[in-house]
Write a structure and sequence with these properties.
The protein is an all-alpha fold. The protein contains seven helices and no strands. It is flat, with a radius of gyration of 17 Å.
Length: 135
């Protein structure tokens, strides 16, 4: 019905504003699409991707630092920011795997996140789910 049309409009606006580099606006559009239809997998996937979009930039900054004390402090701050992004994306991806348990992209992303933050138990869980799907 009309709610689906509105949902799709929000989703499409999310895609457009995300491509324009406006993460904040894009995020609110995806969140609106999810509010209208909490079973719409694509919104969760794009929202998670949007959250994690800042990660490569942080890693690049981390890799460019030297070994001075100031650099070490900066490194730790960036590391915290990176973990923050991961922890923000996890619930979004978990919601997605509840709606769509065979979503390989979501499971893989979760596995990688848990691997990176050193959550061995959850890493193993995701690995097993992927193996069960023949991945």
């Amino acid at each position: 019905g009309s709610e689906m049309c509105i949902r799709d409009s929000y989703f499409n606006l999310g895609v457009i504003t995300s491509e324009q580099g406006d993460r904040v606006k894009a995020r609110s559009y995806y969140e609106s699409a999810i509010e209208l239809d909490s079973s719409y997998a694509a919104s969760y996937l794009n929202l998670a991707a949007l959250i994690l979009d800042g990660e490569p930039e942080l890693v690049e900054k981390m890799n460019s630092l030297g070994n001075s004390r100031a650099d070490n402090i900066k490194y730790e701050q960036l590391q915290k920011q990176r973990e923050g992004l991961f922890l923000e994306a996890v619930p979004v991806l978990k919601n997605l795997t509840e709606i769509d348990p065979s979503n390989v992209e979501a499971l893989t992303t979760l596995k990688n996140i848990f691997g990176t933050i050193g959550d061995a138990a959850n890493f193993k869980k995701m690995k097993e789910k992927l193996e069960a799907l023949g991945q």
